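Page 42, continued from yesterday. The earlier attempt failed because a stray header line got pasted into the input along with the sequence. Redoing it now with the clean sequence only.
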Amino acid sequence: MKVAIITDQHFGARKNSKLFHDYFLKFYDEVFFPTLEKEGITTIVDMGDTFDNRTGINFAALAWAKDNYYDRLQKMGVKVHTIVGNHTAYYKNTNTINAVDLLLREYDNVEVYSAPEEVKLDKLKVLFIPWINQENEADTFKIIEKTTCKCAMGHLELQGFRVNRQIVMEHGMECSLFEKFNHVFSGHYHTRSTDGKISYLGNPYEMFWSDVNDARGFHIFDTETLERKPVNNPHRMFYNIYYEDTPHQTFDTREYENKIVKVIVRKKTDTKNFEKFIDKLYSSGIAELKVVENFDFSGWYDKEIDLVESEDTMSILNRYIEEAEVPLDKSLIQKIMNEVYQEACELV
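This time it went through. Structure tokens are written below.
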């Protein structure tokens, strides 16, 4: 049997931004639902962080999620196994009160897992592992020790995997806790990575600048062969454009409509032509534009400036933390800065 695995959908993200929900919808309309129909998939495993805000829900975001996702799955007769993640657990030390359980009770095709549980997907027995916290940690470890499942799916914070392309998690749980499994699939980190046994599958779409040019989508898992296949999302939100006296007359701007764009100026010898280039971008209907220019300081550190200006905010912060000569745990500082940065983005 083929099963769809999706994680970290974050409905209501960026303060319930219409721009982002329209972007999300293109993925569901043009990639996700057509693939379910084509592959004959009737089972979905949602590995956590279905909704974005753990302490509340925007009514418009809830209506959007029901109209564009849950109602459609119910009509299609698709079973949804939903694992509680840290963004859907109301308290940080327990999963007892969680958004997916409270908000989705009307759907008889949605099963919510707030505690570890062995579940059969066709003939394959899988251990579902929701967000591990102070309350359930001991019980979760006991279940992991006793289970005969060879496959686990959950929302885990493990060491040694990439949070995004800039940060590798140096904290969290030891991977050795999951040695008994042949396959472990997890949500939580939004970028894809694997050590061969444990795989973070990544979220379906770009949400922050740190996601630019990073593969996004969902996966199809075969319960008989234990093979998984990524289904990539071709739609992007963030774009870097490198301007090098680029002629505005022939530059195609059609793909930038309703997108967030950063123009990085590498060469500009004619200001008027550059202004026409920027005007053309604005006329294409972009959602947001930032211009990053390099300035000539006698050429003695042009390369360094180009490196810095071409990086996104988190790349710059992480690089400076890494290079700083301070007697502190740099990986912990990077983790804190990443969390602060993502919270700040949600206030925009």
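Notes: The chain has nine helices and 15 strands.
Reminder to self: strip header lines before submitting.
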